[in-house]
Design brief:
This protein is of the alpha/beta class. It is built from 17 helices and 11 strands. It has one domain: Glycosidases (TIM Barrel), CATH 3.20.20. The strands form 3 sheets. It has a 7-stranded parallel sheet with strand order 4-3-2-1-8-6-5. Helix 14 links the parallel strand 5 and strand 6. 43% of the residues are buried.
Length: 448
């Protein structure tokens, strides 16, 4: 089984030439090339449905909890939304062509649950199905391997309103039904599936401090109208784990033949069928229990472990002063502590680094955004450290840069740019940045 600005015409002309000049530039790759990594190592790029698709209220798509959340003034920078975003729904061919031009092997995209099932369950929106079929088919036509993620923060609003979403066990069956439909519909072409993107973020930011939808927390922890920060993060996380396990169970039974608080919270149950001892000791009775049958279902319910890394968290004793390391530009190598941690505590599972990248502020000028030398330095340094970790035995088999395009960056709206490709949010034109051409050179094949 495979895993689961309106510009003056003169300025426009000159900056376009400036951007294209990078395609002929020779870059310092730090000694890295595709051949630096094992044969078959996968280089991809990634994005998520709500951040790039647009067409949020069109072609039959139902609202998600993010569609409701962004409508409240003050939740998102400049009160922006993903209603249009960068319109990958209509421009997917242009975007896939860019991936091919930059020599990427794979694209990790997410499927919008409410684009397939507007009400979370029941009637299928076949226009949504048609969109993902077109995207997948064009990726394959261009030699890009599709990696599908089933959930990237965007629970159908109907399920949140019906039974509080992740706080009710019904979500386990509803998610598994949705996942099974996707396996059946797209699984003849999609061979690598991911269930939940950053489940810790879903549980903590949605139910502890409530800064993300569904915006639930205790009043002393955030600006929420309802919620319980002492219990709900653990209930939501418990149901995420069981939803994952049920989806994997269905995949393995029906489709295989046809084709600690940060890490341990979710990984420990998948290996051992129980939560880490530290969590049991601290959370105590607030931590839900697995039944015997759930233990058997949860254990070993993954083939590939996907880690997202942007910023490393340094863990220190409560009475000791914190580290003075302040952000990801200062701690590129620290992220591999998580890879080492996994290897030490959970054997040596197959690991894919499914998101890694850095942002620039959205107020940079167009030329400044295109000449993203800091991003080049970031990727070069990070990939050198990755190679070192692999040389030391880390079982990493793939890497996905975040993101191929500037997009809607959740709470930051369009004030933050993570893309290898600049998107003009006025006309949605795409312009590859310096970092895009750096990847193009680094990923060139010797025999091409």
């Amino acid at each position: 089984m495979k895993p689961l600005v309106i510009l003056l015409s003169f300025t426009f002309f000159s900056t376009t030439l400036y951007a294209n000049s990078h395609s002929q530039q020779h870059f310092d790759t730090g000694g890295l090339s595709r051949e630096s990594f094992p044969e078959g190592f996968l280089f991809g790029t990634a994005a998520s449905a709500y951040q790039v698709e647009g067409m949020a209220s069109e072609d039959g798509r139902g609202p998600s909890i993010w569609d409701a959340f962004v409508k409240t003034p003050g939740h998102i920078a400049n009160n922006e939304t993903g209603e249009v975003s960068i319109d990958q729904y209509h421009r997917y061919k242009e975007d896939v062509d860019l991936m091919q031009m930059l020599n990427f092997d794979a694209y990790r995209f997410s499927i919008s649950w409410s684009r397939i099932f507007p009400n979370g369950i029941g009637e299928v929106n076949w226009k949504g199905v048609d969109y993902y079929n077109r995207l997948i088919d064009y990726l394959l036509e261009k030699g890009i391997t599709p990696h599908a993620n089933l959930y990237h923060y965007d629970l159908p609003l109907a399920l949140q309103e019906k039974y509080l979403g992740l706080l009710d066990r019904q979500v386990i069956q509803d998610f598994a039904d949705y996942a099974e439909f996707c396996f059946k519909t797209f699984g003849d072409r999609v061979k690598t599936w991911m269930t939940f993107n950053e489940p810790r973020v879903v549980a903590a930011l949605g139910f502890d401090n409530g800064i993300n939808p569904p915006n639930r927390c205790s009043k002393k922890f955030g600006n929420c109208t309802d919620g319980n920060s002492a219990t709900e993060p653990y209930i939501a996380a418990h149901h995420l784990i069981l939803s994952h396990a049920e989806a994997v169970k269905r995949y393995r039974e029906k489709y295989q033949r046809a084709r600690d608080f940060h890490i341990g919270w979710f990984l420990h149950p998948l290996i051992y069928g129980k939560y880490p001892r530290t969590m049991q000791k601290i959370v105590r009775e607030r931590l839900p229990k697995f039944t015997k049958s759930e233990v058997e279902k949860v254990k070993n319910s993954f083939d590939v472990l996907c880690l997202n890394h942007y910023t490393s968290y340094y863990i220190y004793e409560p009475h000791q002063p914190p580290s003075n390391v302040t952000g990801y530009q200062q701690d590129w190598n620290a992220g591999f502590a998580s890879v080492t941690y996994v290897k030490k505590h959970y054997g040596s599972p197959n690991i894919i680094l499914s998101e890694n990248g850095m942002d620039d502020p959205g107020n940079l000028t167009f030329p400044e955004s295109l000449y993203d030398i800091n991003r080049v330095s970031f990727y070069r340094s990070y990939l050198k450290e990755l190679k070192g970790a692999m040389d030391d035995g880390a079982n990493v088999t793939g890497y996905f840069a975040w993101s191929i395009l500037d997009n809607f960056e959740w709470l930051l709206g369009y004030t933050s740019r993570f893309g290898l490709v600049y998107v003009d949010h006025n006309d949605l034109k795409r312009y590859p940045k310096l970092s895009a051409y750096w990847f193009k050179q680094m990923l060139e094949r010797k025999n091409s």
